[in-house]
Amino acid sequence: MMKGFLMLCYMSSLFLLFPNLVFGSHNYGEALSKSFLFYEAQRSGYLPHDQRVQWRGNSGLNDGKASGVDLVGGYYDAGDNVKFGLPMAFTVTMMSWSIIEYGKQMSESGELSNAIDAVKWGTDYLLKAHPEPHVLYGEVGDGTTDHYCWQRPEDMTTSRAAYRIDPSRPGSDLAGETAAAMAAASIVFRNSNPAYAEELLTHAYQLFEFADKYRGKYDSSITVAQKYYRSVSGYADELLWAAAWLYKASNKPYYLNYLGENGDALGGTGWSMTEFGWDVKYAGVQTLAAKFLMQGNAGNHAAVFEKYQEKAENFMCACLGKGNQNIHKSPGGLIFRQRWNNMQFVTSASFLATVYSDYLASAGKSLKCASGPVSSPELLDFAKSQVDYLLGDNPRATSYMVGYGNNYPRQVHHRGSSIVSVKIDPTFVSCRGGYATWFNRKANDPNLLTGAIVGGPDAYDNFADQRDNYEQTEPATYNNAPLIGVLARLHGGQSEYSQLLPVAIPQPKPDPEQKATPAPATDITIEQKETTSWVRVGKTYYRYSAIVTNKSSKTLKNLKLSVSQLYGSLWGLSKYGDSYVFPAWINSLPAGKSLEFVYIHTANSPAVVSVSSYTLD
């Protein structure tokens, strides 16, 4: 009787403190589905035919042109129209890690194909941004001119200058993170698209070598990034992070030895962290290294990897409030790191806690904290508490995922969502006119940015849903990337297999509406040859001719070609989403006939051209 009375008093006091607090189960599957819609809203370039976020249109179609490189595509990082390479690459790494760990659960929920599409939209761009082994483009546009304007991506009049790193202007952090992204993504595509996976891994090898050989901070070379994505932690963590992912992707001892031999010098075994994100990767490195140790893969470096694991567990204990240096939490229980976009640290910490919980469970071990041992379910409960807070179990009963629940942010700091869709009103929105007409408008966004995770509340659970409150209402791609893994885990439960064994990512379920088939060699041939080359301003350009021939006895229709590793412009085909189709002047190719298209780019090797689909009539 007394126990029940005390519990009643406890619950009453809790509701007096937080009168709006509502406890309830959440639909993690719905939240997972909506997360991928956010990535479609962030797309730059030619949107594909199966684009689900219909209020967006094509944008940034000349990106890279002034520099003689094709940089069309990729993601806008947040509420602006700049493509920042460092956070974009981190986003791809974390989306890939989420799929690697929880692809089975995503497949069972029907979201694996959307997850893989989201990764590929990023990696297709990153491949373009790496036209030479020691050249990487790390930004398109700049924050200063972009933030001066409030325009839809489709109306952009701001600078689209492209900025790069190379041996004379190094950026080990940027190159290292991009190497990690490509290595992690190669695992995602290993079963479904092995040729693409191999291409990604080749670029990852080159980028790691570039990052390690020519050391330096990227924001010392791309100085326009300093005000927005300054590399405060330097590049040592990215070198270790890239090595960890390259080992996981390739199983090559070189990268395991790199982790073992450089852990102390590069800070991986010395720093106990209380954050993990696009800038500081140490906690992620330590978690991966701990996994390698539990898998029995540390080899001669077991003593070093034990130090990595010790630091990983310090991070987990800090999240739980059971360590020697704990992470601050709001009165409502949300971990709090900083005022500006705190939610990025919530989702990333929740992901690390989730995967480490599963690693411990698979190994039959518990977490060692200063206050005593902690079971793996308790660590997962922490991650769940953070996700539940994000989805509405908080003092304001507010969901910080746009479009989830009934009470969510309606005035998001986001150019595209805050301005009427170009498809509804194509009237040009000027640079400053956008501020006067749309930014200062005290009304809900005309376009729902479904799935976006905004910056979130302050240290005391306070939140103001106002468009000019960018610290709290601006979303970012790297907020969602770790969360998709946690949502998949919470929705699908723990897999029956050990999380320490190699995981085979299921094949994505085919689209039932896709009836066209890849081309047999007897139906269509593609022949390419270099026709000329020339030097301009110290750079060599190559012109290639490609001949597509219908070898079948029927008329070829609905041809879709995939063109990758193209570092320039193409003529003679029409762009359709992320594919190329017949030019406007023809709609079919009779039996025995050929079609020629040409392209000019800066690589001394032909682009990769393949047939995606077609029909024969």
UniProtKB/TrEMBL annotation:
Secreted keyword on record: yes
Signal sequence, renumbered to the chain: 1-24
Keyword Secreted part of the UniProt annotation: yes
Pfam families listed in its UniProt record: CBM49, Glyco_hydro_9
Keywords recorded for this protein, A-Z: Carbohydrate metabolism, Cellulose degradation, Glycoprotein, Glycosidase, Hydrolase, Polysaccharide degradation, Secreted, Signal
Enzyme Commission numbers on file: 3.2.1.4
Localization in the cell: Secreted
InterPro entries the UniProt entry points to: 6-hairpin_glycosidase_sf, 6hp_glycosidase-like_sf, CBM_49, Glyco_hydro_9, Glyco_hydro_9_Asp/Glu_AS, Glyco_hydro_9_His_AS
Gene3D superfamilies hit by this protein: 1.50.10.10
The Carbohydrate binding domain, residue ranges: 524-604
Catalytic center residues: H413, D465, E474
Domain of life, source organism: Eukaryota
Alphabetized PROSITE patterns for the sequence: GH9_2, GH9_3
Catalytic activity annotation: Endohydrolysis of (1->4)-beta-D-glucosidic linkages in cellulose, lichenin and cereal beta-D-glucans
Family: Belongs to the glycosyl hydrolase 9 (cellulase E) family.
Name of the protein in question: Endoglucanase
Organism listed in the record: Solanum pennellii
